[in-house]
Every structure is written in C-alpha cells, then in structure tokens.
Amino acid sequence: MLGSVVVGVGIAGCVRMRDLLAPLPSSAAEKLSIKGFVSRRTLEDQQGVKQITMTEALSRSDIHVAFICTENTSHEESIRQFLEAGKHVCVEYPMTLSYTSAVDLWNLAQQKGLVLHEEHIELLTPDFKQLKKDISGKTLEKGTLHFTGGPLKPNFGFPSFSGIARMTWLVDLFGELTVTAASLVEEKENKYMKMTAHFLTQQQKPLTWIEERGPGLGRAKTIDFNFQDGTITELPDGQREPVGLFMQDLVLFGRKLQGDVSAAELQAERSRILHCLELADRIQQLSENAQA
Ligand code: NAD
C-alpha cells in the first residue's frame, strides 16, 4: 500500500479524499490509502481524515504520495518539495505556470525515480471521447473552440495556463500547434476578460481558441470545426460512464505507480503536456507584448 496526503482542501482536494477513501474495486487505485490532508487553514477532520502539517507530510515514512490540489500559483513549490522528499506526485492541471519549471520538475522526478503525474480529466469526459471518435479520419480545414465561464478565482495564473484544459483538447484532437498571434482584453473593474489565441496545425490549418470569463457568463464550450467533408458545431453527447472522472484519473496514476503504463505512453503524455505548457507560455508572452 502507498500512503497518500492531499494538499489543498477545495473542490478538487475533497474529491480526491472521497476517491482515496473508496477506490474503484479491483483497480490500481486500491493500492493507495489516505493518511492525512494539509491545509493552510486549521480544519476539523474532513471525511474522517486528519489534518497534518506540511513538515509531517514531507517527512513521514508511511507517506509515499502527494496529491497537489491547491491553487495553480503554489503547484510548482509544492511539487518540488515533495519530489525532493522522495514522494511521488499527482498534481491537478496545470502542473506549473511556466514551461521551463515543468521541464525542471520532470527532470527532478526522473533523477529521483519518482512518478510525476498531471491530472487531465477533460480528456476523460464522455463528450470529449465521443468527439475524438467523430473526428477521427477527418481532414481539418479550420476550427474554433470558444470557452465561457464565470470570473476566475485569484491565484490561478494567466488564462492560457488556467484554461489549459481547452488547449489540451485542441492538441489531442489535431496534433502539435504553432501560436501565430494572441491577445488579451481585460476589464479588471468588471471582472471580465477575453483571451484569443490563433494557431496553425502542422498541416498549416488555422485554429482559434477563445477563453472568455465574466460575471453572468455560463460555463460552456462552443465548437466550430470545418472539415473537408462537413462541419461539427455541436459537442456530441457521449455515453455516460459509471466511473467518475477523478476516479478514472486516480486509476491511471495508480497504474503508473505500479509500472503498468508503457514507456511509449508515458513519453507521449509528457510530450503533449510540455507542448501545451510551451504554447501557454508563448500565448502569455504575445498577449503581454501586445498590451505593453
Ligand atoms: P479551490 O479554490 O476550490 O481549492 C484550492 C484549495 O487549496 C483552497 O481550499 C485553498 O485554501 C487551498 N490552498 C491553496 N494554497 C495552499 C497551500 N499552500 N497549502 C495548503 N492549501 C492551500 O480550487 P479547485 O477548483 O479545487 O482547484 C484546485 C486545483 O485543481 C487547481 O489547480 C485546478 O486547476 C485543478 N482542477 C480543478 C478541477 C475542478 O473541477 N474543480 C478540475 C480539474 C483541475
């Protein structure tokens, strides 16, 4: 059994604790048990789990794994601390708020022989799985993915990082991309922002990603993908699955810990994650240059 600690008790952290307390039967997630949680606040037991200090979490020999579920700005430091302490890490996306720090952390994990896993539940949703099937074999001409949602909480980073789940969709569907232009419109007093990023696929086809947030904006994704043989403007309704998204991710992480995921799969995942972080960096640079 691998003892675990959950760091950060927000929406994601609570789901992690719930799943660790009742892992999917006969899955790799059963190899994980929860030993405690870390929070900046002093809290009562959560779902029967006790609060421990960060120092304890880093030093206890019965804790082998950390789940980093805090706001994005603190991911990098927490990952580094746990890797340095010899613990495996599962971090909620985005791993960090820069490409170079992610490369550094991955190298550190490799040197230490530890698993560093970044959660990407957006790739596990029934709608996305169905969309990927529907698109398979089609030749893209151009496309747009427009996300809307309420204002973002503080400490989640530049929108190309906080919204990296949307860009991960595009990269997973259409392959590696090049950023050609990016801009950010921000009305701080109205808690409104709109980021627009333009890409080219390797086949030189244009893709646009819009991330728009503000009061009253409902959480939604709109797609408009034009292919040689037709257009997709509606997200398909994928078949609902009995296993929740975070549990599916926990099973994948558990399989990595057991050495049950092939080197080729790990390499492909790492390349996709680092590519997305590199694009996020570039979008931030271009947007900030345009504002300067
Ligand atoms: P949240 O604001 O609900 O939770 C963050 C929690 O972390 C808060 O309780 C905060 O007090 C705590 N925290 C922050 N810094 C800390 C520190 N240094 N030590 C201990 N606790 C600390 O946010 P959330 O929605 O749970 O998101 C957390 C992470 O999960 C983010 O990286 C987000 O991108 C990712 N994520 C969330 C979801 C989701 O459905 N909520 C889905 C995928 C990924």
TrEMBL record:
It comes from the Eukaryota. Pathway: Porphyrin-containing compound metabolism; protoheme degradation. It is an enzyme of class 1 (oxidoreductase). Its cofactor is Zn(2+). It catalyses: (4Z,15Z)-bilirubin IXalpha + NAD(+) = biliverdin IXalpha + NADH + H(+); (4Z,15Z)-bilirubin IXalpha + NADP(+) = biliverdin IXalpha + NADPH + H(+). Zn(2+) binds at residues 275-276. Reduces the gamma-methene bridge of the open tetrapyrrole, biliverdin IXalpha, to bilirubin with the concomitant oxidation of a NADH or NADPH cofactor. Does not reduce bilirubin IXbeta. Uses the reactants NADH or NADPH depending on the pH; NADH is used at the acidic pH range (6-6.9) and NADPH at the alkaline range (8.5-8.7). NADPH, however, is the probable reactant in biological systems. Belongs to the Gfo/Idh/MocA family. Biliverdin reductase subfamily. PANTHER family: BILIVERDIN REDUCTASE A. This is Biliverdin reductase A. It comes from Culter alburnus (Topmouth culter).
